[in-house]
Write a structure and sequence with these properties.
- Two copies of one chain form a homodimer.
- By secondary structure, chain A is mostly helical.
- The first copy, chain A, has three domains: 136 residues, MgtE N-terminal domain-like (MgtE N-terminal fold); 100 residues, CBS-domain (Roll), CATH 3.10.580.10; 160 residues, Orthogonal Bundle (Tetracycline Repressor, domain 2), CATH 1.10.357.20.
- Chain A has a three-stranded mixed sheet. The first copy, chain A, has a three-stranded mixed sheet with strand order 4-5-6.
- In chain A, helix 15 crosses helix 16.
- Chain A is elongated.
- Chain A starts with a helix and ends with a helix.
- The model of chain A has no long low-confidence stretch (mean pLDDT 88).
- At the A-B interface, helix 12, helix 13, helix 15, helix 16 and helix 17 of A face helix 12, helix 13, helix 15, helix 16 and helix 17 of B.
């Protein structure tokens, strides 16, 4: 029943119309039928002045769920309009990690108000989580989880889960800790439920616990979820004490955001965390101009190489016509290799120690690709360009072009696979070593090779 | 405790050494401490002849979990070595959807053997799921889930969950169906557990169920998980009957694979589903050569444009030196715009109906980027290239280059954002409209503009 997409435009119109006509009862009935994520989607395109009214039509719980899904600017606008009681009501319904996400996006004045009206436990939790760096496991976690003691029976455990479970983000996995809060094991609700009432938790818990440290990078956290098929992951401090858990929905968001970030970097952009249509023109400009400027200036090299060989080009002008083709093919080959390696690094499929295996593989691929491309190119040069278009191609000229192509493909593949691995090794982000950067390097290499071959075979 | 990565090399050596020395007892103790995903990781780099022995050291359950994580070629090798009893034992421990994944990768002979030794229920399930197209929700699902009736009390439901839960992939979400198996609602185990014993399921179940059809594309399935923060998603047939469920771990795998596929397509490769180091040189070659050939041949256009304007270049040779810079900048601008739009389309943030909003935004970004790049370029031309390198740059030549830059940036941004949206509209994959393709188009445009400006301002 993912039919929301199809009904979206119709719903938008209907909601706007009904709000104008003040048909609040019917409006409420419509909104209540929708998923919070879908209402948030509608809120994106409804007139801002309608939003506080629509928000107030919803009962407490769905209202809080909707609130979490809204964009930060809408959240801020709503909070500014809330009475203290309303703010408290919404906050009481929120999970801790969602509240922290909201707090992180709000200006100082709003944060103060939120902290003032959050209950003491939540305030403590918020301050706790805000301590951790932005991209760390600590910043992703919630401190609301079910903890059990090792000597509890299954009956005790179920009682505790029933008693404390309502406020917890998940009860599907429970965590067994000792009095010093050291993590001893995990036990899934399923195991508890399928065990006998008088079984002891210690005997049914899993003691090989996969956990992460508070400072672990969130990209690694997402990879851990995916590798071990987890639905929740405990976060421990340096003394192995359990401080929080991360749930799979947050890991999925991280995975999506990290893939977007990698893609943006590969296309020579600084990553932004807002959706495209929400980003201002100036912000988009700011994320794009630095690499454009840098790459434009570094193209000075290729320009100077051509300027230096001006005489050669003068002597055999047709060579100029094949510069774009050689450069583009080199760029494409390089980006194929680099992007493959960058993605492999992101997914932990490739490591620096694989450097020689990777190079050896790319060398062989380059030889086959280079051979096929050159042969195809040779045929095209002699049949299409010479016979059809009448370009002044001689056999030596065709040879210069095709040999350059082989060497360019080779250089592009090797540079393309090596640079990201080296970047990773020295602690740089491999993603910025993608196509645009490698294109610039490969352009220069291929031009130098081109003119060397021309000098050698054409004597110019 | 993600310390596996650090211990990997040491473990590999140890396991190999101990296998050679036949220290099976100690070996078993080491393996049993490891996660199945980590043992699979070790199996990748252990000598093939050791694997059957190591596999047999493990107890039934972890052995089955390990089996699921192995690469298809290792699975096939192991199955070929299994006795019928061993095969049956492994199959009995597997979840249905994992078995189907394995079956899909095996040659016909092995599939026959698997079907012969699977129990009748599983055989039926396998055949059922194999009916669905490869990229559909149906192919991802498992038919092992907990179903409840609407008139059950919480006590009945808990009894049923306890009785049937062992074999189900997840019991965290249960599905309420009518006698015709029509999906009436979902109820989480949490809700069941926190309710009173005599509450009736009908009263506590959620009736607004998010579900997908069996033929829904798996990319949309993954997006649904991420949008609504689900841990399981019911799959229904055309009559709204519940036929299976998809769990979040599978959705995460799809999300990861789809991001990789998009990235590969953006870098002009045909997608492969094997990890880089597992792909043969010939397969890598096959995935890369088609686009390389196509793009090489389409570069004929740019070549012919230059050939046609040979005289202009002869009259003012320095113009040639700036062709790479103009082409690269155009390519980079185009790929920034196209990649942003492609990713937005993948994440459902942008739709075709946003075409004009997107173009209008790119136009404004292009104007600012173009202005800044041209000014920087003008300064560079006059100060660095002319004064420092002594290139014969006159004011009109600098003007030709900078004006071309402005128009190229503009054209690149507009073409870059438009092509993916048009591709989507006509049912093509937007990802193949990424940088390499757009570079070729933009190259041709920028060259024509270059020579037009040269004719206009330099009179050549």
């Amino acid at each position: 029943m993912i039919d929301f997409e199809e009904r979206r435009d119709e719903l938008l119109e209907k909601v706007e119309e009904m709000t104008r006509r003040k048909q609040y009862k019917a409006l409420r009935d419509i909104l209540i039928e929708l998923e919070p994520a879908d209402i948030a989607d509608l809120f994106d395109d409804l007139p801002e002045e309608m939003l506080p009214l629509l928000f107030r039509l919803l009962p407490k719980e769905p209202a809080a769920e909707l609130f979490v899904e809204l964009e930060p600017d809408v959240q801020e606008m709503l909070i500014r309009g809330f009475s203290n009681t309303e703010l408290k009501e919404v906050l009481d319904e929120l999970y801790l990690d969602d509240t922290v996400d909201i707090v992180e996006e709000m200006p100082a004045g709003v944060v103060k108000r939120i902290l003032k009206h959050a209950d003491p436990d939540m305030r403590k939790g918020i301050n706790e989580i805000l301590k951790y760096p932005e991209d760390s496991a600590g910043s992703l976690m919630t401190t609301e989880f079910v903890d059990l003691k090792r000597d509890m029976t299954v009956e005790d455990a179920l009682k505790r889960i029933r008693r404390t479970g309502t406020d917890k983000e998940t009860i599907n996995v429970c965590y067994v800790v000792d009095p010093a809060r050291k993590l001893l094991g995990v036990v899934s609700l399923r195991t508890v439920l399928l065990a006998e009432e008088d079984d002891v938790i210690e005997d049914i818990m899993e003691t090989h616990v996969i956990s992460v440290g508070t400072l672990e990078d969130k990209e690694d956290v997402a990879q851990t979820f995916s590798k071990y098929d987890l639905i929740a992951l405990p976060v421990v401090d340096k003394e192995d004490r359990l401080v929080g858990i991360i749930t799979v929905d947050d890991a999925m968001d991280v995975m999506e955001a990290e893939a977007t970030e990698d893609i943006e970097k590969m296309a020579a952009m600084l990553p932004t965390d807002k959706p495209y249509l929400k980003t201002s023109v100036f912000d988009t400009f700011k994320s794009r101009i630095p690499w454009l400027l840098l790459l434009m200036i570094s193209a000075t090299f290729t320009g100077q190489i051509i300027a230096r060989f001006e005489n050669a080009l003068g002597a055999c002008a047709i060579l100029t016509a094949y510069i774009p083709m050689l450069m583009d093919t080199g760029g494409n080959c390089g980006s194929q290799a680099s992007v493959t390696v960058i993605r492999g690094l992101s997914l932990d499929e490739i490591e620096f120690s694989d450097l020689f295996r990777v190079i050896w593989k790319e060398v062989r691929v380059a030889v086959v690709c280079g051979a096929v491309l050159s042969c195809a190119n040779f045929a095209k040069l002699m049949l299409v360009d010479k016979l059809l278009f009448g370009n002044p191609i001689t056999l030596p000229i065709a040879l210069v072009i095709c040999l350059t192509m082989v060497v360019t493909v080779f250089a592009a593949k090797v540079v393309g696979c090596t640079l990201p691995l080296l970047a990773k090794k020295i602690g740089f982000d491999p993603a910025v070593m993608a196509s645009p950067f490698i294109t610039t390097v490969v352009d220069a290499i291929s031009l130098v090779i081109y003119f060397r071959f021309a000098a050698l075979l054409l004597g110019i």
